[in-house]
Amino acid sequence: MKTKILVAPSILSANQNNLAGEAKMMEKAGADFLHVDVMDGRFVPRVNYSPHTVKLLSKATKLPLDVHLMVFEPWKLVKEYAKAGAKRICVHAEAGNAEEVPFEAMIDREPLTVICSKMGWIRALKGHAALDAEVKFKDGDEARFAFHAETTDKILALGSNGRFYTVIGANLPGGRGMGEPLRLMVDLPNDAEIVDLMIFRPGERLLIASTAGDGFIVPSDEIVAQNPRRQTSDDPWRRHKNRPLPENLR
Description:
Elements: H1 19-28, E1 34-39, H2 51-60, E2 65-70, H3 75-84, E3 86-91, E4 111-117, E5 121-126, E6 143-150, E7 154-159, E8 164-168, E9 180-181, H4 182-186, E10 194-199, E11 205-209, E12 215-219, H5 236-240
Parallel strand pairs: 1-2, 2-3
Antiparallel strand pairs: 4-5, 4-6, 5-9, 7-8, 7-10, 11-12
Helix pairs in contact: 2-3
């Protein structure tokens, strides 16, 4: 098995008066990341690149920014650098007590228009566009789902295999092309279809029913993947299959 070596030059070695130009030069040279060291003078001697500098760098290059926070209590800065454009952030465990930061808190809240085709290709247009606007699809494909959302929203996809899948709005492909197959983003099996697509709303109760007439009511909090790295929820059919529907819904 071959090991791929990634190259991440540090901007500490760059011409500090021309960081944008140096970043573009490293991008053309084939670098995989740009390494950004942030030192606060308490944990290690001070050499600091502010979130503003990181934001300007993220606009100057397509390379992902790898920010190394060599600072005391880095947890207080993670959110700020993530919003500035850092794609990967490294900290030191001994630099202070860890504080759990919600994944959504690292994302700027911006409006999206989510579009998913009949074949399951999904994309997100910037802003809240008209839901009946003309959109291009691949030959033989057509629109199926279209709704307004935000980058911080968790999007739930229900598969015909009875499982729910979760994807963050900010992780959806942009609207310039045809999008990407949703099944590849969430590992939906090839023999399963997308039955429904919706925004997760905490506290809601959902009525889930099969074509055979079986069904149950489940809290939305039980079907969303709480960890953004874990995209699949547990199978709600297995946990609720013996729960009868209320009489008024039969």
